[in-house]
Design a protein that fits this description.
The chain is mostly helical. It has one domain (2-10, 19-64). The chain is 79% helix and 0% strand. It contains three helices and no strands. Helix 1 (2-12) packs antiparallel against helix 2, helix 1 (2-12) packs parallel to helix 3 (47-68) and helix 2 runs antiparallel to helix 3 (47-68). The radius of gyration is 13 Å and the shape is elongated. The mean pLDDT is 89. Residues 1-14 have a biased composition (Basic and acidic residues). Residues 1-25 are annotated as: Disordered.
């Protein structure tokens, strides 16, 4: 499966020393991967796909947390 290979490559990519535009691009790529895998998951209900989506979502949340910054109190 090409989607799983792309997801594996995205997960293994280092996220340190990224510029803001790199973070935005990575966040969009993660979203696209998650949505693509979700389409396959709807048909197959494969638990492995769900685990991949969960890992990608966690990485995406970390990227977006860094993008949005700490909220002011």
């Amino acid at each position: 499966m090409d989607l799983l290979e792309k997801a594996q490559e995205f997960e293994s990519r280092k996220m340190s020393n990224m510029s803001t535009s790199d973070r935005v691009e990575a966040s969009r790529e993660a979203k696209a991967l998650i949505l693509s895998i979700n389409e396959v998951y709807k048909e197959t209900k494969d638990p492995e796909l769900m685990e991949v989506m969960k890992r990608l979502t966690e990485k995406k949340k970390k990227i977006e947390k860094r993008l949005n910054g700490v909220p002011l109190v």
